[in-house]
Specification:
It contains four helices and no strands. With about 70 residues, the chain is mostly helical. α2 crosses α4.
Amino acid sequence: SLDHANCAKYGPKPAAQEVIYLRCFLGMSEAETAVSPNIAPGTVKSRAHRALQRLRTIIQSDYPELAAPE
């Protein structure tokens, strides 16, 4: 199971964390999210996709009771 020290190693990178925060927690669109870190909307999509995939993997392996059934 992941502890806090390993979370940075196995969790989403800081740039992806920012995208997830802006998109998921603040509800910004892809275009709005791209403005703050000055990145292309396509980069927002790819970072969000990779970060969410990484989080799914962590949840499925370390917290299977929280994972959606397949």
